From TrEMBL, chain A:
Gene field: mrdB
One Gene Ontology term from the biological process aspect of the record: regulation of cell shape
InterPro entries, A to Z: FtsW/RodA, RodA/MrdB
Protein function: Peptidoglycan polymerase that is essential for cell wall elongation.
Cellular component terms per the entry's GO annotation: cell division site; plasma membrane
Compartments reported by the entry: Cell inner membrane; Membrane
Transmembrane segments: 21-46, 58-77, 147-164, 170-187, 194-212, 281-302, 314-341, 347-368
Protein name (database record): Peptidoglycan glycosyltransferase MrdB
Catalytic activity annotation: [GlcNAc-(1->4)-Mur2Ac(oyl-L-Ala-gamma-D-Glu-L-Lys-D-Ala-D-Ala)](n)-di-trans,octa-cis-undecaprenyl diphosphate + beta-D-GlcNAc-(1->4)-Mur2Ac(oyl-L-Ala-gamma-D-Glu-L-Lys-D-Ala-D-Ala)-di-trans,octa-cis-undecaprenyl diphosphate = [GlcNAc-(1->4)-Mur2Ac(oyl-L-Ala-gamma-D-Glu-L-Lys-D-Ala-D-Ala)](n+1)-di-trans,octa-cis-undecaprenyl diphosphate + di-trans,octa-cis-undecaprenyl diphosphate + H(+)
Entries under NCBIfam families matching the protein: rodA_shape
GO molecular function: lipid-linked peptidoglycan transporter activity; peptidoglycan glycosyltransferase activity
EC class name: transferase
Keywords from the named record: Cell inner membrane, Cell membrane, Cell shape, Cell wall biogenesis/degradation, Glycosyltransferase, Membrane, Peptidoglycan synthesis, Transferase, Transmembrane, Transmembrane helix
TrEMBL record, chain B:
Superkingdom as given in the UniProt entry: Bacteria
Native organism taxonomy: Bacteria, Pseudomonadati, Pseudomonadota, Alphaproteobacteria, Rhodospirillales
UniProt main location, coarse: membrane
Protein name stated in the entry: Penicillin-binding protein 2
Keyword entries, A-Z: Carboxypeptidase, Cell inner membrane, Cell membrane, Cell shape, Cell wall biogenesis/degradation, Hydrolase, Membrane, Peptidoglycan synthesis, Protease, Transmembrane, Transmembrane helix
Mode of membrane association: Single-pass membrane protein
Domain Penicillin-binding protein transpeptidase: from-to ranges: 253-591
Domain Penicillin-binding protein dimerisation, residue spans: 50-219
InterPro entries per UniProt: Beta-lactam/transpept, Beta-lactam/transpept-like, PBP_dimer, PBP_dimer_sf, PCN-bd_Tpept, Penicillin-binding_protein_2
Length: 386, 625
């Protein structure tokens, strides 16, 4: 791929050695530390065993790391060119799930590829950011103000969001809308237009509600009000708060969390892994993890602000915000601040697809960082420089 | 534009993350104690360890109610690959009904896989051994030893001891001990009276449990305290003898008590039942047969049976007359066989009459007319006052539940209860222990003890120094004096002596002939059914010719020895016929036996009882460990 940009023809070409030098190794280290915390917690969740979670998570991490570095070393313009294609493929896969998907956890989310359970909605999280970034990259600031030109990106957000909502996976749908909204916002779309969209969305809720089937309505209702389901979501959140609160300042010690180890805490290896960390390492451990995440997010912003091209800046913030939303929604959820949504804690929760999604998106972020000085024309071609 | 908005976005995210940190601080520092408690409540479960029930012994320490090892078989689903197969193998080793297998399979499915389900109770030692030997073929089968109440004397003490049974819904007091499966409480008799002492104090075991309730490990254990030993005043030998003697009749009751200290030495009610059959739940069939039995075996007739005392009541009337000063012992009345009052004629039991009788003779011959005459001078209220003073008409306060009070009528009682005025003739009928007067055998025994001692003796089945928490301080012979003239009491006792030890006394044939052990008594035959005028005129219907339930009750009260009386006794044989012919021989045998037992064994002192119970406690502990 990089072969198209030969030395001499492309003044922005960054040689491989320099790419390796420009790699954000500190960020790589941060991600590795977070993942290692995850391994430790998964080891604890299995009562001091690498099986069944920690070992598989390590293998996925290793594979994901290789993939991340490959993506990081690839020229950002390649990703720009591939973004629409990625979006279309993701959309097709989402439709595919809609038609024939494996039912799991009460929702259609996976496509079984034999060797891998592909979750197209995760793929879409990256593709949507890429596609929107490319679209707005192609607009001048004046064009961004024209309403007809905002309709295509709006549809680009709504189409996958609607499909994911049908699975039903309200959490991912909201993540997609929020991630997309951030790109709109950063591209300079006026505040009042957001207000109109928001108002329209609220007005559309009762209409859309009628199209849902009864069981789907029930799922949404349970999501909105966990008390309807005291032995399900309501029980989970109560036990989660007890686990966190009883952890206190310094925690009960590694592998000594009674709530987690006596199974009062559900799903401790996935969505509620932060609770277990909070129980075993206390406030100190929880804040330390939060600081690590904050550092990663700050890195994302620094990369965005230092990037010379609009595409890179938008993708960087989009990726960072998606990452932030994962962290925020998961932790706020286990602390009972927001309703229970199935959002994992990035890099720490057990789960292959999310690990891949996160590492791929950080690969993109690092690619942007490495190629921060590359200037790209609105058409996305290197020869369009003026 | 981009930079500004990006910084705004970043700032917004920073605020949200700070919010998370604040929430974390709130949960983990400010609310930490509350959540720690909740986590411990989740984690720690307090399990009660039921204490062994206290044992009950007789006055010499002979075990009357003990705890027997009860082996049962349990099955744990998660430890056996195939429940049905294991049960089938088990049924080839010990007897198991086919329905049991279905029930267990059902139970096992409905409970959590680690919760043991009872397969069978009450295994014999032989069965335990056979299951133990075959253990390798029986995965998931557990032999568990529990305790169950055992009454070695069986039916001999059913009424006094009572029985234990599972706690009923309405008996739940909030005490968690009562909610333990298999816990038994006293339902009647001594078991009920001293239930709190016998129960003991539960131990606790703190265990760590997981979310499914499975015990992970024991954190702390506090042993409970077994129930107190209750030592009864009963002498089991005398008790057995009394039961045996009464069992010759359809339905009867007898009490032997100590004149000085109120110790009940024997309390027998016949027919009886086996209290062991209640411990593990009585069968419907057996229960039906017990409650439908016309001789009411479940009732303790010594305290629940109320009978017209008949002529035994004359001792009370005579004493009342002496105390009131309406007669002197020598004063005579003429008995022509009847007395006319108004339009009514009141007969003496002896149709031909007794002629001139003084007080001594009136007792000896049980002349009714003498008492008709005396009672007219006394009036019912003075008779009633003396009866109450002698312990009749009120519960004696013996330490058994559901004692009945009997009835001693007064003018006021009749007016308030029946709304009618007292008739003079009714006083006459009451004076010979008929009419409204109703007493229990225990009250009669108490009356005899009071006549013999002059003190306000009350009966009891335990001594205060054995179960101090339950009985207000009660010393051996510190009963208050009744304030009745010694001389008057001597007249009564002399009259009773005449009944048994003088030729032509109504119970002369039933006297105790052993020198020094003689008894003094009073016969009583109480009519159950009024004899019609027609029958009286024809005079041919003998008591024996009537159906059983219309026959007279036979009663006898007595004390022995005549000099320095020590034992008081009351016997009632329901529809047994005459007091002299049926009840007196029983009393004679009981009092003879009581005195013989006393001479053959050392006297019982407080020290003896205490050491006996201590020995017993240590031996039971050894057996348990």
């Amino acid at each position: 791929m990089a072969a198209r940009y030969r030395i001499g023809q492309d003044p922005d070409y960054v040689p491989l050695g320099r790419r390796l030098l420009l790699m954000n190794w500190t960020l790589v280290l941060l991600l590795a530390i977070l993942s290692c915390i995850g391994f430790a917690m998964l080891y604890s969740a299995a009562n001091g065993s690498l099986q069944p979670w920690a070992e598989r998570q390590m293998m996925r991490f290793a594979a994901g790391m290789v993939l991340m570095i490959l993506i990081a070393l690839t020229d950002v313009r390649v990703w720009l060119r591939m973004s629409y294609a990625a979006y279309v493929i993701s959309l097709i896969l989402l439709v595919g799930v809609e038609i024939k998907g494996d039912i799991g956890m009460g929702a259609q989310r996976w496509i079984n590829l034999g060797f891998f359970q592909l979750q197209p909605s995760e793929l879409m999280k990256i593709s949507l950011v890429l596609a929107l970034a490319r679209y707005f990259h192609g607009l001048t600031i004046e064009e961004t103000g024209r309403i007809p030109l905002l309709i295509p990106p709006l549809l680009m957000v709504l189409a996958p969001a609607a499909l994911v909502l049908r699975q039903p996976d309200l959490g991912t749908a909201l993540l997609l809308v929020a991630g997309g909204g951030v790109i709109f916002w950063l591209s300079g779309v006026r505040m009042w237009k957001f207000a109109i969209i928001l108002g329209g969305a609220l007005a559309a809720i009762p209409i859309g509600w009628q199209f849902l089937r009864d069981y789907q309505k029930n799922r949404v209702l349970t999501f909105l009000n966990p008390e309807n389901d005291p032995l399900g979501a309501g029980y989970h959140i109560t036990q989660s708060k007890i686990a966190l609160g009883s952890g206190g300042l310094f925690g009960k010690g590694f592998m000594l969390g009674s709530q987690s180890h006596l199974n009062f805490l559900p799903e401790k290896q996935t969505d509620f892994i932060f609770t277990m960390l909070g129980e075993e390492f206390g406030l100190v451990g929880g804040i330390a993890l939060l600081l690590l995440y904050t550092l990663v997010i700050v890195y994302g912003y620094v990369i965005a602000l230092r990037c010379a091209n609009q595409f890179g800046r938008l993708v960087a913030i989009g990726v960072t915000t998606t990452f932030f939303l994962y962290v925020f929604i998961n932790i706020a959820m286990v602390m009972g601040l927001i309703p229970v949504v199935g959002v994992p804690l990035p890099l720490v929760s057990y789960g292959g697809t999310v690990m891949m999604t996160i590492l791929v998106s950080f690969g993109l972020l690092m690619s942007i960082s490495i190629h921060r000085d590359v200037r790209i024309s609105r058409q996305g071609n290197d020869d369009g420089r003026h | 534009m981009f930079t500004r908005r990006a910084i705004m976005l970043g700032a917004g995210q920073g605020v949200l993350l700070t919010g998370l940190a604040a929430r974390m601080y709130y949960l983990q520092v400010m609310e930490s104690d509350r959540y720690s408690t909740l986590a411990d409540e989740n984690r720690i479960s307090h399990r009660l360890l039921p204490p062994p029930r206290g044992i009950i012994t007789d006055r010499f320490g002979a075990p009357l109610a003990v705890n027997r090892q009860n082996y049962h078989i349990l099955i744990v689903r998660e430890q056996t690959p195939d429940v049905r197969k294991t049960l089938t193998v088990l049924s080839q080793i010990i007897e198991i009904e086919p329905e049991t297998i279905d029930r267990v399979e059902n139970d096992v499915q409905r409970r959590r896989s680690f919760v043991p389900v009872t397969v069978r109770d009450n295994l014999t030692w032989d069965e335990v051994a056979r299951v133990g030997v075959n253990a390798p073929d029986l995965p998931g089968i557990i032999i568990d030893a529990g305790r169950s109440r055992d009454y070695p004397e069986g039916p001999h003490l059913a009424h006094t001891l009572g029985y234990v049974a599972a706690v009923a819904e309405k008996e739940l007091t909030g005490d968690p001990l009562l909610e333990l499966p298999g816990f038994r409480i006293g339902k009647s008799g001594i078991e009920k009276t001293y239930d709190m002492s016998l129960r003991g104090r539960a131990g606790t075991s703190q265990v760590e449990v997981n979310a499914l309730g499975r015990v992970i490990r024991e954190l702390d254990r506090e042993e409970g305290q077994s129930g107190e030993t209750v030592v009864l005043t009963l002498d089991i030998e005398l008790q057995r003898f009394a039961n045996q003697r009464l069992s010759e009749y359809e339905s009867a009751a007898a009490v032997v008590m100590d004149v000085y200290n109120g110790d009940v030495l024997a309390m027998s009610s016949h027919p009886t039942y086996d209290p062991n059959s209640f411990t593990n739940g009585i069968s419907h069939k057996l229960w039906e047969s017990l409650i439908n039995n016309e001789y009411s075996p479940l009732s303790n007739k010594a305290i629940n049976g109320t009978y017209s005392p008949g002529s035994t009541f004359k001792t009370c009337v005579a004493l009342a007359a002496l105390e009131a000063g309406v007669v002197t012992p020598e004063q005579r009345f003429f008995c022509p066989g009847h007395l006319d009052l108004g339009n009514a004629r009141f007969h003496c039991w002896k149709r031909g009459g007794h002629g001139w009788v003084n007080m001594h003779d009136s007792m000896k011959h049980s002349c009714d007319v003498y008492y008709y005459e005396v009672s007219q001078k006394l009036g019912i209220d003075k008779i009633a006052a003396m009866a109450k003073r002698l312990g009749l008409g009120d519960p004696t306060g013996v330490d058994l539940p559901s004692e009945r009070s009997g009835l001693i009528p007064t003018r006021e009682w009749k007016e308030t209860q029946l709304g009618k005025r007292w008739q003079g003739g009714e006083t006459l009928i009451c004076s010979i222990g008929q009419g409204y007067v109703l007493t229990t055998p225990l009250q009669l025994a108490t009356m005899v003890a009071r006549l013999a001692s002059g003190k306000a003796v009350t009966p009891h089945l335990t001594r205060d120094h054995v179960v101090p928490e339950d009985i207000s301080a009660r010393s051996d012979s510190e009963f208050p004096d009744l304030g009745i003239s010694r001389q008057h009491l001597n007249y009564i006792r002399d009259g009773m002596n005449g009944v048994t030890n003088e030729v032509r006394g109504t119970a002369y044939r039933s006297r105790i002939k052993i020198k020094g052990l003689e008894m003094a008594g009073k016969t009583g035959t109480s009519q159950v059914r009024r004899i019609s005028m027609h029958e009286r005129q024809t005079g041919v219907i003998g008591n024996d010719e009537l159906p059983w339930k219309y026959r007279d009750h036979a009663l006898f009260i007595a004390f022995a020895p005549v000099e320095n009386p020590r034992y008081a006794c009351a016997v009632v044989v329901e529809h047994g016929g005459s007091g002299s012919g049926v009840a007196a021989p029983i009393a004679r045998d009981l009092l003879t036996r009581a005195q013989e037992l006393k001479s053959s064994r050392p006297g019982v002192s407080a020290v003896n009882i205490q050491s006996a119970s201590q020995i017993l406690r240590t031996t039971t502990k050894k057996q348990e460990s």
